[in-house]
Amino acid sequence: MVHQVLRRFHGSAARPESRPPPPPPPGDLRERKPDRWVVARGDDPFERAARRDAKTKAAFASAVDAFAEGDKRRRGHVEFIYAALRRMAEFGVERDLAVYNRLLDVFPKEAFVPRNYVQRMFNHYPRQQECAVQILEQMETHGLLPNVETKVLLVQTFGEKSHPLRKYQRMMYWFPKFKHVNPFPVPRQLPQDPVDLARLSLARIANDLDAKVTVYQMPYTDVTETGEEISFPHIVGSQSPDQRELLARHDPSRPVFVEGPFPLWLRTTCVYYYVLRADPLPPGEKVEEPYDPERSLYYPLQLSLDLDRDMGDLGDDFSVDDVDEGPVFAMCMTGRGDQATLNQWISGLQETNAVLGRVPTLFRLDAGPRELQGGPAAAAAQGEPPHPHPEAEPWVPGGGEEEPAGPPRQEADVTLEEEPPPPPPQSSERPPGRRVNNG
Amino acid sequence: MNINRVINYKSFEIGKSLLAFNLRRNGRRVFTPHQYRSIKTHARSLAYAKDLFLGQLNKVTTAEVFPYPEIGNEELEELNQFVAPVEKFFNEDVDSKKIDEDAKIPAETLDGLKELGLFGMQVPEEYGGLGLSNTMYARLGEITALDGSIAVTLAAHQAIGLKGILIAGTEAQKEKYLPKLASGEHVAAFCLTEPGSGSDAASIQTRATLSDDGKHYLLNGSKMWISNGGFADIMTVFAKTEVVGPDGVKKDKMTAFIVERAFGGITSGLPEDKLGIRGSNTCEVAYDNVPVPLENVIGEVGGGFKVAMNILNSGRFSMGSSGAGMMKKLIEMTAEYASTRKQFNKRLSEFGMIQEKFALMAMNAFVMESMAYLTAGMMDRPEVPDCSLEAAIVKVFSSEGSWICVSEALQILGGLGFTKNYAYERYLRDCRILLIFEGTNEILRMYIALTGMQYAGKILTGKIKEMKKGNVVLALAMMGQKLRGSFGGTMDFGLTGKDGPVHPSLEDSAKKLEQNVYNFGSVVESVLYRYGKTIVDEQLVLKRVADVIINMYAMTAVLSRASRSICIGLRNHDHEVLLANTFCTEVYFKNNYMMAQLQKHAPENNDANIKKIAEQVLEKRAYICSHPLDRTF
């Protein structure tokens, strides 16, 4: 084992561990061990392909092709497939059905189809079956529905009643049923522009077709006379006519609050929003609008009867929308959650809500989540692609031919066999590097 | 239950019966053409339709609808004198096709109408009008309805436009305005609806503020969908004024004003381009600081709401006769076609499905006519009875009946009916407005049902409370009652039999009505028991309640009319009996079905589902089903 590890480190210029591994498929515990396949072959075709062209689908496909054509017997294909599965996200093909089918095609045909009842009774070629199930599993994780080609490949490879085919059938049964189960789907591709993202998020929170999203300020940078660069964040707000009406009726002697930031998750992205709200009226001060008998010209709006609704017909009156928790008058999203910026929002709101000029506005801003905004999640919210990691940057473009920063690597030899601590989720981009440093 | 009621309301009944019998006797004798009405202070309330909500028909209330009201010989003769020239005019001088195409009634036609006095039909003779009673007005309405545009123009002028002056105006106002309005020299309009206010008086924005010198009001605002708005000289305008209430608090209340175009500051928008009644003028009217003298307030300052309501309530009854007039004409036209057109060597009139359409049209015309003249007759009784409930019933039934029948008439002609070569498409377009204006049918159903519920609720509250407390005796009595009903026990309210007002040949139908009325009483009771005053929010329940009461009133009207026709031997009274019996049987089953639904709770009668469907659609404001061709894999 040690020998193999050494060979990997000294023999390969590709140095696979120098590159952040893709997010592991859930449940796969092997991801932290070096790929056995790579270990055995001492060469990484994906690395080679990526070196030739960029990390694209074509590169990935060429790597798979190279493997399939290179060895007639397809030795080590299970290991190869596991390795390929792990690299898919890296090549941006993790949601490409054709690529999965191509991977399934790597299995030699008909070799694993049980031929008699004994074979059928027992788990025939379990490693291969498990591997194929793993492919399907990863498709499932990415919400990818197999097609007929997948089925044909599975039948050709494993036969009609194999585990992978069962898996395929289950997927075909459940996937369509669950496809539209979410009434509020999030688009897979979130808009890159922070203003568009804010629009989308606000519309999602408000869920009111009347709500109007207003851009109070587009993001821009300005250079002052002293040569300082000042960037102005975007301010996007949403308010519906109902909210405006509520605010207009708000008692000016009671304060309104600007609160936030509150998180909103859109798939893997977290954005923050702020609300303008008031406290609910204390029960004593609620004023019911008195019944005006001279209101409806045609029919009485109320009957003067001393009869209430019968218990049996009360029904289930609880409504999640009708909880007494104080009105929310407006919402906004901004690139910078400080009071000055939010004040700008409030003065923008004031143009359509004159009452805000008379109501005391209190800012109750939490500091905590604002720090998070510097993190990768907020970076994603700002429209930057989530992947580029500042530390990983210098290692990638060179393709790993020349060897940067030697010392940490050597230490790695010693500590590698230790079971590393699970990488913290936010820095999962480069666990091996960190491991090395810690050692 | 009946005994209970008699005990409970004995004193009330006796008092009322004395009063009613007196009036009845008077009513038959004194049947003068309609005199001008003063604003109602103590309207004797007729209770027939309302009493149906209690599930009872007693001698007092049935006396209001049996026998069928009739007019004296002199009146009839007088009326026929009016009718002949009007009919002639409409047949010869009115070119409805041209009116529809040009979207304008020619001046000559309007002059002809004025000469016939049709602009002042209900204006008393002392002010230069014809002084017609409601019955006579309804009769003329049958003819004017032959052209929808003219009918609406006339109705906007006198059924609502000048009605305010007529029922609530002062003597001076009447003398000043009515003569010119009656002659048609001035045209009136009724200006209530605003862009932001249909039935909701609270959202009226037009304001009248007292000028600095306190001599007149300044009127500001705009009104929309004003019939005759483009050329009306006199308008009844409703606006908010500031009124100091009895507690010293200033409040905005509605006030009615007589506004002359000559006051200045009034601008009319372009006439709306409409689907039907295209010849009538409908447009927006804007008021910019229009000075209105103090003496032009109708009724009291702040009393505009009552004025508006009275005008609206009184204008509706004539729609029944208008619809019937139109139906009769349509039957003639289509019968001609169906009897001449041959297919497969058979006339269209020999095909069952075509025959069914004629039966339907005849039946509807008959019912509409019966209801309209019954109601008009009731309204013509002295002491200004409040017939607004009945009038609303007539409006709803006849507008819907007309719509269905016109559509069937068009169907008989097939493709020809769809072309502009024939008048059917115009009738269809014109007729559509009936369901909308003068209070949409939905709103009127609410009015009908809630008025009855209020009336019945007042009387039943005590009993229902007693039941809710768990009064065993009462509950057992109820149970027995229900059981008897379910075992087919019939109810005898005395409509038939030796002293009954219904003719024996209509006995079965009368029994059906009695049965319906009886069941309806217990339905109303259970609805009140279940919903109490929150019934106002149960529109689907109220709709059925209204439909049942509409049907029962219609049954009453045809029974009453057919009985009279047999008794005095009118021509073709056997046909009337046939129509009446057919209608009653048909409606009896419809009523039973609706009442069965009313007895059920929301999930069983589909109401909950209907609401849910609507909610889901409205939440997305779209039809939300996936396309049938969509796939998920």
From TrEMBL, chain A:
Subcellular location: Cytoplasm; Mitochondrion; Nucleus
Low complexity: compositionally biased ranges: 373-384
Gene3D superfamilies, per the entry: Tetratricopeptide repeat domain (1.25.40.10)
Record InterPro entries: ECIST_C (IPR029342), ECSIT (IPR010418), ECSIT_N (IPR046448), TPR-like_helical_dom_sf (IPR011990)
Main location: cytoplasm
Any one GO cellular component localisation term in the record: nucleus
Region annotation Disordered: where it falls in the sequence: 9-36, 367-439
Species per Swiss-Prot/TrEMBL record: Merluccius polli
Family membership noted in the UniProt record: Belongs to the ECSIT family.
Annotated GO biological process: cell surface receptor protein serine/threonine kinase signaling pathway; innate immune response
Name listed for the protein in its UniProt record: Evolutionarily conserved signaling intermediate in Toll pathway, mitochondrial
Residues covered by the ECSIT C-terminal domain: 240-366
Keywords: Cytoplasm, Immunity, Innate immunity, Mitochondrion, Nucleus, Transit peptide
Pfam families (UniProt xref): ECSIT_C, ECSIT_N
Residues annotated as transmembrane: none
Gene name linked to the record: ecsit_0
Automatic annotation (TrEMBL), chain B:
Protein name, UniProt field: Complex I assembly factor ACAD9, mitochondrial
Keyword Hydrolase among UniProt keywords: no
Gene (UniProt): ACAD9
Domain Acyl-CoA dehydrogenase/oxidase N-terminal: 77-185
Biological process (GO), any one: fatty acid metabolic process
CDD domains given in the database record: VLCAD
Sequence ranges assigned to domain ACAD9/ACADV-like C-terminal in this UniProt record: 504-622
Chain ranges of the Acyl-CoA oxidase/dehydrogenase middle domain: 189-290
Reactions the enzyme catalyzes: nonanoyl-CoA + oxidized [electron-transfer flavoprotein] + H(+) = (2E)-nonenoyl-CoA + reduced [electron-transfer flavoprotein]; undecanoyl-CoA + oxidized [electron-transfer flavoprotein] + H(+) = trans-2-undecenoyl-CoA + reduced [electron-transfer flavoprotein]; (9Z,12Z)-octadecadienoyl-CoA + oxidized [electron-transfer flavoprotein] + H(+) = (2E,9Z,12Z)-octadecatrienoyl-CoA + reduced [electron-transfer flavoprotein]; octadecanoyl-CoA + oxidized [electron-transfer flavoprotein] + H(+) = (2E)-octadecenoyl-CoA + reduced [electron-transfer flavoprotein]
Residues in Acyl-CoA dehydrogenase/oxidase C-terminal domain copies: 302-449
UniProt-listed PANTHER family: ACYL-COA DEHYDROGENASE (PTHR43884), COMPLEX I ASSEMBLY FACTOR ACAD9, MITOCHONDRIAL (PTHR43884:SF9)
MF terms in GO: acyl-CoA dehydrogenase activity; flavin adenine dinucleotide binding
Localization per Swiss-Prot or TrEMBL: Mitochondrion inner membrane
Cofactor: FAD
Chief location category: mitochondrion
